[in-house]
Amino acid sequence: MRSGPLTLSLLPKATSLPDPPTGPDEHPPSEWASHLQALPYDCVRDGWDILPPFLRSIMELPPRREPMLRNGIPWNALELNEEIGKLSEHVEATYMFMVGRRVELECVLCQLGGGVFPYCVVIDYEDGQTECCNCLWECTTRGCWLLGKCGKYSFDEESP
Fold first, then answer.
1. Which InterPro entries match (predicted)?
2. Domain contains 13
3. Is 79 inside a domain boundary?
4. Which of 19, 24, 35, 130 lies at a 20 to 30 A Cα distance from 158?
């Protein structure tokens, strides 16, 4: 078991990643999924520990798709990696997009083309589902429109 501070040299770099896929077609997990699974983002780590409880709960889920962007988002690999690493919510939202369930009836934000991801993706748990990945990325204060006008999913470690 490792101890001590996390050194950046041990974490994967985004410089070798291809530009993220865009558009409506889903892509199988590949280089971006592998990169994201390593969680090389300081905003979610304290050394080797992963801080956000929600992220810890979904880390064991297998990737279903490659993280990708909605058409019109012009980020290259380095820009996307930087945007993901700005906030823990961005890391969680991207991970959620990679491992979650794509919903058939999208929330209003996703229907209007909002958010960075091309689909409305949620994590199911025994009593319902989380807010969608786009609403989480946008850090909406009213919660996901999929859950209702004022519905906000409040995660506790025992839900999913």
1. DUF3716
2. no
3. yes
4. 35
